[in-house]
Design goal:
Length: 324
């Protein structure tokens, strides 16, 4: 009898253990590393005549992906190179530089960070050592001033030896509306369309190639994260201004592969509108924050980081909309 019970309960315990694993542990986000010979999660792909992007993991940052869970891009002009996003640490920045040198002998003269988050700016320490000019939005610099050392500490925890020589550096140039970078015969425009998902979010436009490096203005594949200070109503307005300018362009979002406006609209604006509508129903019915956490978002459960973000996003939208 004892043996019979053991034989039945063992598969159940295994099944329960499987349920307790995260989506990352279950392999639902794909490989932990696509480029094992590089610190990069994956090697750069050619987006257009002048633009390349190393598409990062749509996963939380880990030792295996070295924090390369956003897109690290570069733009090649006739005289110099612009890097968009410095990377999460110096190891990633060096690895990206190795790949740039395989394509061009031109120097990296400029680095633009899409915001003040760690994977956008911590690797700027390396690029500064290469005499690149570091550029970012004024609000992104404020984020670095206020949160930078905490962001650096958390990165060091998961990146371990990959982070050993990485430290904080400030932008050399900050701007409020837009900043134009001349790369010889090619122009790149760093531009803000207004409040998006985090302070200092910027998009880099390459008009000649009709490519928009959207940054965290636009998402697909990965669920958009909503922070405590994210104003989703303003984000929707900003997104509309962005789409008006790049409607038929190639889009490289902050996370996920190269795509188009229709795809990032479904992955960003449509999701925000859905969540706001559900929260509005709860508010009108006199519901609570607990009700917001229970919003059925199962239509999005195929998105990466759904488990980490869905309930939290709903709660933060509810807390914000209470006072709109």
């Amino acid at each position: 009898m004892f043996r019979w019970i053991f034989a039945v309960t063992l598969p159940i315990s295994v099944a329960l253990a499987a349920q307790e694993k995260t989506a990352l542990e279950r392999g639902e986000y794909g490989p932990l590393d696509k480029a094992p010979d590089s610190a990069l999660y994956d090697l750069p792909v050619k987006v257009s005549d002048h633009v390349y992007s190393a598409i990062g993991a749509t996963q939380p940052p880990t030792y295996e992906n070295a924090g390369h869970n956003n897109n690290l891009s570069f733009v090649i002009g006739s005289e110099s190179v612009l890097v968009v996003n410095g990377g999460a640490n110096n190891a990633l920045a060096r690895a990206l530089h190795v790949e740039i040198k395989k394509v061009t002998d031109l120097p990296v003269r400029y680095v633009i960070s899409e915001n003040g988050q760690g994977h956008a700016m911590l690797g700027n320490h390396y690029w500064k050592s290469q005499d690149a000019v570091l550029i970012g939005h004024v609000d992104a610099q404020h984020e670095i001033d206020e949160e930078g050392f905490g962001v650096l500490s958390r990165m060091r925890e998961y990146a371990q030896e990959l982070a050993q020589d990485t430290t904080l550096v400030n932008f050399d140039i900050t701007f409020e509306d837009q900043y134009i970078v001349e790369l010889g015969d090619l122009k790149a425009i760093a531009k803000t369309y207004g409040s998006a998902h985090s302070p200092g979010d910027v998009t880099v436009l390459v008009p000649k190639d009709r490519v928009g490096l959207a940054g965290d203005m636009a998402f697909h594949i990965r669920m958009p994260p909503i922070f405590g200070d994210t104003d989703t109503a303003l984000w929707i307005d900003s997104f509309d201004r962005f789409v008006d300018e790049v409607a038929d362009w190639i889009i490289v979002p902050g996370h996920g592969g190269v795509t188009d406006v229709e795809t990032v609209t479904a992955g960003t604006k449509d999701y925000l509108l859905f969540l706001r509508a559900k929260v509005q129903e709860i508010l009108e019915a006199g519901g609570s924050l607990d009700d917001a956490y229970k919003i059925d978002q199962s239509r999005y459960q195929h998105w990466h980081t759904y488990e980490e973000l869905a309930a939290r996003n709903a709660g933060r939208v509810f807390e914000r909309m209470e006072f709109e």
